[in-house]
Every structure is written in structure tokens, then in C-alpha cells.
Write a structure and sequence with these properties.
This protein has about 230 residues and is mainly α. Helices cover about 75% and strands about 0% of the residues.
Length: about 230
């Protein structure tokens, strides 16, 4: 304080800290809410995708009397979900499907430009084959095709979340305000707050709480990454 201007000799007024706290709280609430909204939206889309796979699997086993064709379709339904997972993690191969698909089928899937769409094409081929053999009628084809269209809608919505990041200007602004707040809090705590050296641990707790919220927001804004807190 001896080396700064006179207004710091008595610390920072509590009104200044109150204004900073109010503004920072609004920014943090918006940031966390926006990130959790993305996480929850992705969870809803993924849950609906799972429901569609169950419905389409049921339709094949109930409507198609040919067990081999129904099993073949279900192998591609399973492959579709794994292909979506890998695609949303920017990966081009599905090694987990080695026990589900034939080696030649898996090789063609790994070479596809968009693995989920390739799986949808194979499921559609199974539907067309069942129709050609007279196992299902056009009404049943329409019902099954609606589920396949749902596959495309949900992977498209997930890709929209993945490829639309939170604006960096918002994140940068929040971090600058947070740094300024953390730097000014001890000037109040050690001055008008009358904590003395107790301002040090209290400031550490403040800093950990604020930066922890920002880190959590950054972690959950992409729910498809490969880490323990992301979508299973």
C-alpha cells in the first residue's frame, strides 16, 4: 500500500466488491447454464437414439419372418450406435465392432466417409430386401423408415452441438472479470474486511470455487468427449 496511490491505503470499499460480485455471478450463472443446457440436450438426443434402435429392432424381429435377415439388420443397428459414438469423437474406425460385423463389413464401414450414414444405408437395404421378398408391406416399410430417419435427425443434432462451440469472446470476457475479481478480493478482506493474513486462505477458497465452476462449464459443454464425466 505504501507504493500505491492513496485510495488503496484503506483497502477497497465493499461496494466495489459487491458490484463485481453481482456482475461475475450473472456471467457464471449464464456460462454454467449454457454448458449444462448443451449437456442435457445431448443426453436427450442420445436417449431418443437408443429408443429408436430398440423400436427398429423390435420391428425387424416381429415383422420379418426371416431370422437371418432380422439378425443382419440388427447387427447394423448395433453398428450404427457405435459408429455415432466414434464419429462424435472425431474417430474414423470402430474396433469395438469386430465381434459384431464380418471383417469385410467392418473394413467397408471404416472406409466410409460418414460411418453413421453408411450404417443407415445398410439398414435401409435390409428393409428393401424384406419388402422385395414379401415379408413386410409398404405400411410397415413406412414405419421402419421413420425410425431410420430419426437416426439421421439425432446424429445431425448431436453434430450441431459438437460443431457449435460456446463463443470464445464470452469465455474470454468471463475469465478476465474473474481474474480481476480474484485480485481485488484480498484488498477488501485485508482492509475493511479486517481479516489480516486470513485474507490469504479465504482468497484461495474464492479462487478455487470460481475457477472450478469455469472449468466444469468448459468440461461439460462438449458431452461427447472421452472422459469420466461425459455421456456414457
Amino acid at each position: 500500500n505504501d507504493r500505491t496511490s492513496t485510495w488503496l491505503d484503506e483497502g477497497i470499499n465493499k461496494d466495489v466488491i459487491s458490484y463485481l460480485t453481482f456482475g461475475l455471478a450473472l456471467l457464471l450463472v449464464f456460462r454454467v447454464g449454457q454448458s449444462y443446457g448443451r449437456y442435457n440436450d445431448a443426453r436427450i438426443k442420445w436417449g431418443m437414439m437408443v429408443n429408436r434402435t430398440r423400436d427398429l429392432s423390435r420391428q425387424f424381429f416381429c415383422y420379418v419372418p426371416d431370422p437371418a435377415l432380422a439378425v443382419a439388420a440388427n447387427r447394423w443397428i448395433i453398428a450404427y450406435v457405435f459408429a455415432c459414438k466414434q464419429s462424435l469423437r472425431w474417430k474414423n474406425e470402430c474396433p469395438e465392432l469386430a465381434h459384431t460385423l464380418e471383417p469385410a463389413e467392418l473394413a467397408r464401414l471404416n472406409q466410409a466417409k460418414h460411418m453413421p450414414i453408411y450404417c443407415m444405408e445398410q439398414i435401409s437395404n435390409c428393409v428393401c430386401e424384406a419388402l422385395r421378398k414379401g415379408h413386410i408391406d409398404t405400411m410397415q416399410v413406412k414405419m421402419m423408415d421413420e425410425n431410420i430417419t430419426g437416426f439421421e435427425d439425432y446424429i445431425g443434432a448431436s453434430e450441431r452441438l459438437l460443431k457449435t462451440p460456446v463463443p470464445f469472446a464470452l469465455v474470454l470476457h468471463l475469465r478476465w472479470v474473474m481474474i480481476f475479481y480474484i485480485c481485488t478480493v484480498p484488498l477488501f478482506l485485508a482492509g475493511p474486511g479486517a481479516l489480516g493474513w486470513g485474507a490469504v486462505p479465504v482468497t484461495v477458497i474464492f479462487a478455487y470455487s470460481l475457477t472450478g465452476l469455469e472449468d466444469i462449464s468448459q468440461s461439460i459443454e462438449n458431452p461427447f468427449r472421452q472422459s469420466w464425466h461425459c455421456l456414457p
